[in-house]
Amino acid sequence: MTKLFSMLALASLSWASGHPFVAWEQYEKQVRDQTLPKDSLKARFPAVYGALQANHFGPNPASIDSPWVFPLAGYSITSVGKGGFKPGIYYGGSSIKGYDFFDGNLHGGHPAYDIFIRDDNRDGRDDRDGKRVNVLAPTSLIVLSRQDSWKPGSQLRGGKYLWALAPQYQLLLYFAHLDSVISSPGDTLRASQVLGTVGRTGKNAQAKRSPTHLHLMVLRVENQIPVPFDYFRLLPR
Ligand SMILES: [Zn+2]
């Protein structure tokens, strides 16, 4: 009995430490915080991503042709910041020009769209009804990792955020500045399921000057490197 129990305990321990989601979460935070040299982080990406792929991908990704669900409940394409997708620029006080996933929290560029809610008083709530705005899965997703704690004054640019995988397209999605993260690593979400709420968390997003928005970045894995993907044409009109 004791032996069986310890075997079970060992089995669940190795599941926890060896599971691809756990490995991804550790890795994504090492990249974010630059706790290892950039080259070694870059060298590890194929293994970490490959383990996710082995669990969930078929051999061939689907072609990206079907439209997405709009990622903010009660909003539409007119709330998307014009010209938001600029991977090549200086941005956000970073001294680095252009986006590179492996620069983590120091990254340059703005390879994303900001989607704004109606919030003139900057309280993080929709001015129309005083409620939080739900963030929806734009397509079928598997939740990979999240940051669900954040304090004002933190240097973390994303604030509370969530990483997810769209296995059918080999896309990584990053939802940032959330007020709350509602889903957990390993969750499978259908398009239009709620994954969190819009907030004002993050080094710059918390500032009064910043209009309340969702920062949604999508990366496509090409040649074992995650590169910015312009998803604007997939948003419903
Ligand atoms: Zn942004």
In a nutshell, what does this entry contain?
It contains 3 helices and 10 strands; from the N terminus they run αααββββββββββ. It has 237 residues and is α+β, with helices and mostly antiparallel strands.
Describe this structure in words.
The chain is α+β, with helices and mostly antiparallel strands and 237 residues long. The chain has two domains: 55 residues, no CATH class; 158 residues, Distorted Sandwich (Glucose Permease (Domain IIA)). It has three helices and ten strands, in the order αααββββββββββ. Strands 1, 2, 3, 4, 5, 6, 7, 8, 9 and 10 form a ten-stranded antiparallel β-sheet that branches. A hairpin with a 2-residue loop joins strand 9 and strand 10. It is globular and about 45 Å long. The N and C termini lie far apart (61 Å). 36% of the residues are buried. The N terminus is likely disordered. Zinc ion binds next to strand 2.
Low-confidence stretches: 1-16
CATH class of the largest domain: Mainly Beta
Shape call: globular
Mean pLDDT: 90
Q: Compute the gyration radius: what is it?
A: 18 Å
- Written as H for each helix and E for each strand, in order along the chain, the element string is HHHEEEEEEEEEE
Number of helices: 3
* Helix percent band: 10-25%
**Oligomer, anyone?**
single chain
Determine the CATH superfamily of the largest domain: Glucose Permease (Domain IIA)
Quote the CATH topology of the largest domain.
Answer: Glucose Permease (Domain IIA)
Bound molecules: zinc ion
Return the CATH architecture of the largest domain. Answer: Distorted Sandwich
The major pleated sheet works out as: 10 strands, antiparallel
Structural class: alpha+beta
Strand content: 15-25%
Strand tally, please?
Answer: 10
Tell me the count of domains: 2
